[in-house]
């Protein structure tokens, strides 16, 4: 994880760099194989008034 952040720090502008990196085993997918991005985002939006 730290290697990824270091790479981003060297190659991306400050406003484009991720604040954190989380590695997961598998992505949640639909029956047709598409990634369910909203399920990946849910934990990060808990406690917020609204999401993007």
The biggest beta sheet, please? none
Number of strands: 0
Helix content: 25-40%
% residues in beta strands: under 5%
CATH superfamily: ANL, C-terminal domain
CATH topology: GMP Synthetase, Chain A, domain 3
Instruction: Tell me the distance between the termini.
Output: 25 Å
- The CATH class is Alpha Beta
Count of discrete structural domains: 1
N-to-C series of helices and strands:
HH
- How many whole angstroms does the radius of gyration measure? 14 Å
- Low-pLDDT residue intervals, each spanning 5 or more residues: none
For the record, the CATH architecture stands as 2-Layer Sandwich
Q: Round the mean pLDDT to the nearest integer and report it.
A: 90
- The total count of helices amounts to 2
Task: Tell me briefly what this model is.
This protein is mainly α and 52 residues long. 37% of the residues lie in helices and 0% in strands. It has one domain (2-45): GMP Synthetase, Chain A, domain 3 (2-Layer Sandwich), CATH 3.30.300.
Describe the structure.
- There is one protein chain.
- The protein is mainly α.
- It contains 2 helices and no strands.
- The protein has helices spanning 2-11, 37-45.
- The chain is extended and about 40 Å long.
- The two termini are 25 Å apart.
């Amino acid at each position: 994880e730290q290697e990824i952040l270091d790479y981003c720090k060297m190659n991306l502008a400050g406003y484009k760099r991720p604040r954190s990196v989380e590695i997961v085993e598998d992505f949640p997918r639909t029956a047709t194989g598409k990634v369910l991005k909203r399920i990946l985002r849910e934990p990060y939006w808990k406690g917020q008034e609204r999401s993007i």
